[in-house]
Design goal:
Layout (H helix, E strand, L loop, with lengths): L1 E4 L14 H9 L3 E5 L10 H6 L3 E3 L2 H7 L2 E3 L17 E4 L7 H10 L2 E4 L14 H18 L21 E5 L3 H12 L3 E6 L2 H10 L4 E5 L2 H10 L2 E4 L25 E4 L20 E4 L2 E4 L9 H22 L1 H7 L1 H6 E4 L2 E2 L2 H7 L6 H5 L12
Parallel strand pairs: 1-2, 1-4, 2-3, 4-5, 5-6, 7-8, 7-10, 8-9, 10-11, 11-13
Antiparallel strand pairs: 6-14, 12-13, 14-15
Helix pairs in contact: 5-6, 9-10
């Protein structure tokens, strides 16, 4: 199989979808790897490292998209890349369809098979390809939140840790999953007073056991959310409903309860955001202010720490890439339900129930498309 790795073109995206070791593993198994020139530069990986691992360095993204049977990326195809998509091509990347109907319809029209990192599950039911980037984003959310709490950044002028004689900041975290727990660890480590809100009592009990004394766990409902954001200096949106659009836990009118200069970091923005006033931003222009509240809604937060994020991501994606090229996606999905959950769109049909429900599109269960004759389980590129 020919596997292509184009350079990421989303604004201020410094990650790359494959390490040189991945190229070596694939070429050693008899596959061809095409790497766009400069693809790894943002992560400190030069073309010569890929070339020495057996990859072919190509000059343009067009060559990658035209020549590869499977594209491995980090972020969803950008609008300028849609015309490069080829029917029956497999694209393996983060898609976050629920946040973008235009992208969803473009992928449907393209005829590709879209396998989304963020919905693929492992045998334990967890999200192995989403977890490392959620860890990065959770930890970064406090780092970025602390920066934008500074007065020159339109924040309240508060030091997250406080100093002797002056109280530390109050941090409210909506969601106790991977993002929320990592945010809480960093915020608590800096000395802030932290609240984690979640609707899963088992998760709250676990967090209550492992977190330091300056972290309080609360059941999430409208009253506790309003009370928590009223006292907070920094709010972290860390809600995830796999494959679906995030619910709005903070409404427009709720901003009136918050102090001027409070900072919201909406990590859920990839799935539409969990604050009604959130809209996507970039690392170049990361914030905007609504009703005196600073909103940070960068859709590719981990991209700013490209080297850390690339290694963390590729550590978990490479085993799946190797399985996909060895077996073909149909055969693998037919025997691995977790991989099947990663297939969001297959050749014009939406195979993820949450994505279909979000936009009112017809839902086509993948099982019905996979359980055909044994011959059709073989992919065209084997």
């Amino acid at each position: 199989m020919i596997v292509g790795v184009p350079k990421e073109i989303k604004a201020e995206e410094y990650r790359v979808a494959m390490l040189p070791v991945g190229a070596e593993e694939l070429t050693s198994a008899g596959h061809q790897v095409l790497i766009e020139a400069g693809a790894g530069q943002g992560s400190g990986i030069v073309d010569a490292q890929y070339a020495s691992a057996g990859a072919t360095i190509v000059a343009s993204a067009g060559e990658i998209w035209a020549g590869a049977d499977m594209i491995v990326k980090v972020k969803e195809p950008q609008s300028s890349e849609w015309s490069l998509l080829r029917p029956d091509q497999v694209v393996f990347t983060y898609f976050h369809f629920a946040a973008d109907e235009t992208l969803t319809r473009a992928i449907i029209d393209s005829g590709i098979t879209a396998i989304a990192y963020e919905t693929l599950r492992d045998p334990r039911g967890s999200l192995p390809l989403l977890t490392p980037m959620s860890e990065v984003a959770g930890r970064m959310s406090i780092q970025e939140g602390a920066r934008f709490l500074e007065r020159p950044q339109e924040g309240r002028g508060i030091l997250l840790a406080g100093v002797p004689g002056v109280a530390p900041a109050e941090v409210a975290i909506l969601g106790g999953g991977v993002v929320g727990s990592n945010a809480a660890k960093v915020a608590a480590g800096l000395g802030a007073n932290v609240r984690i809100l979640d609707v899963n009592l088992d998760r709250l009990r676990y967090l209550d056991d492992i977190m330091p004394p300056n972290v309080t766990t609360l059941y999430s409902d409208r009253h506790t959310i309003r009370e928590s954001i009223e006292r907070a200096d920094l709010v972290i949106g860390a809600v995830l409903i796999t494959g679906a659009r995030a619910p709005h836990l903070i409404r427009r009118q709720d901003l009136g309860l918050m102090k001027t200069g409070t900072v919201i970091v909406d990590v859920a923005i990839d799935q539409g955001g969990c604050i009604e006033t959130s809209r996507p931003t970039t690392h170049l222009q990361p914030t905007y202010v609504v009703d005196g509240v600073v909103h940070y809604c960068v859709t590719n937060m981990p991209g700013a720490v490209g080297r850390t994020s690339t290694y963390a991501l590729c550590n978990v994606t490479l085993p799946y890439v190797l399985q996909l090229v060895k077996n073909g996606w149909k055969a693998l999905a037919a025997t691995n339900p977790g991989v099947a959950e990663g297939v969001n769109i297959d050749r014009g049909r939406v195979t993820n129930r949450a994505v279909a429900a979000t936009f009112g599109l017809p839902y086509s269960p993948l099982d019905a498309r996979l359980h055909t004759s044994a011959a059709t389980l073989e992919t065209s590129f084997q």
